[in-house]
Design goal:
It contains 10 helices and 5 strands. By secondary structure, it is mainly α. It folds into 2 domains: about 190 residues, no CATH class; about 100 residues, no CATH class. A hairpin with a 2-residue loop joins strand 3 and strand 4.
């Protein structure tokens, strides 16, 4: 509607023709909006008259969708009226009604078409046309909002109608139909939520049948209590086989825990690169490392995957004890680590 109001060339060269065209377009648009309102009402009545679920689905997804949703209502949404109409009204006021030069041009055009009119009458006709155009444009948004409300109400009624027909076309059709007919007769024109405290006497909704949908298996079965079993007592005495088995388990656990990967990680965390020599007394087992890391280091010194080698200063006389270092309350034979 009135997209020409945004065309500055048209407003400058043919202002009166632009106003006349806008008036014609707005009148046609308002008539279309009225037609849309009546169409929504007509579809609502048609849906209520349909007594089958198939007929209601046809009204909603065939007639209404084709004639309203995909054509008229979609065009109404694409028009972006809430954004464009206020700007159109503003341009009429600022660009036409408050511009003396434009008013004079429109007055001259009216006098050329109607020579019998006086200058004052021509000016009045121009002002009346502008006021009518503004009034018509301001009526568009309320009508569009009303169409939105009726469309939403139609959708809500459609869903409720579908649910109703799904119930009344089943086994309990007669019972449910009588219930709702009585409710409509006694509560006509009122909402249930407003008369909830003073509901009239309505028919009872009786169960058509009592049965187990899933059979006896759906019933709850209490758990079966089992008799307590006696625990076999352990022998208090430990045999040599038990000791040997425990020793093997401990050895296996140590091997799995103190791996060569742990030793390599220990070496990697030490400062220096390849070929660096680190004495045993320089190791720190109090903060960054633990005695287990040292054990892994000594245990896998000869492993092929070890990223280091150990240099131990052995004494020639076995009766002479080798020098030792105290590392976190652990005394070890003095050695040196050389990174590979």
């Amino acid at each position: 509607m009135c997209s020409m109001l945004a065309n500055e060339v048209e407003l400058s060269e043919r202002p009166w023709q632009t106003v006349e065209n806008c008036l014609s377009n707005v009148r046609e648009g308002i008539n279309e909006l009225r037609s849309m309102q009546k169409s929504v009402q007509r579809f609502t009545r048609k849906q209520l008259e349909e007594e089958t679920l198939q007929g209601n689905l046809s009204v909603v997804f065939d007639d209404y969708s084709e004639q309203m949703s995909h054509s008229c209502y979609a065009a109404l949404v694409r028009a972006r009226l809430p954004l464009r109409l206020p700007d159109a009204v503003r341009r009429i006021t600022e660009r036409l009604a408050d511009d003396p030069a434009t008013l004079a041009d429109m007055q001259t055009e009216v006098l050329l078409r109607h020579p019998e009119l006086s200058a004052e009458s021509a000016r009045t006709r121009v002002a009346t046309a502008l006021e009518e155009l503004i009034d018509l444009l301001e009526r568009v948004l309320p009508m569009a909002d009303e169409i939105d409300r009726r469309t939403a109400d139609f959708t809500r009624r459609s869903l409720a109608r579908f649910r109703y027909l799904q119930d009344v076309t089943g086994e309990r059709r007669t019972e449910l139909k009588a219930f709702f007919e009585t409710a409509n007769r006694l509560l006509g024109g009122r909402r249930l939520q407003r008369v909830n405290a003073t509901l009239p006497e309505l028919p009872d909704l009786l169960l058509p049948a009592v049965k187990l949908p899933a059979g006896l298996d759906s019933l709850y079965s209490p758990p079966t209590r089992r008799p307590p079993l006696e625990q076999d007592a352990f022998d208090d005495e430990v045999s040599d086989n038990d000791r040997e088995s425990g020793l093997h388990d401990m050895q296996r656990t140590i091997r799995e825990t103190l791996s060569v990967a742990r030793a390599n990680n220990f070496i990697q965390s030490l400062p220096g690169g390849k070929g660096v020599r680190i004495e045993s007394h320089q190791l720190d087992l109090t903060t960054t490392h633990s005695p287990a890391d040292l054990i892994a280091l000594l245990l896998h010194a000869e492993a092929p995957d070890a990223r280091y080698r150990l240099d131990v200063q052995r004494v020639s006389d076995e009766s002479t004890p080798p020098p030792t270092d105290a590392l976190h309350e652990i005394r070890v034979e003095r050695f040196a680590i050389i990174k590979k």
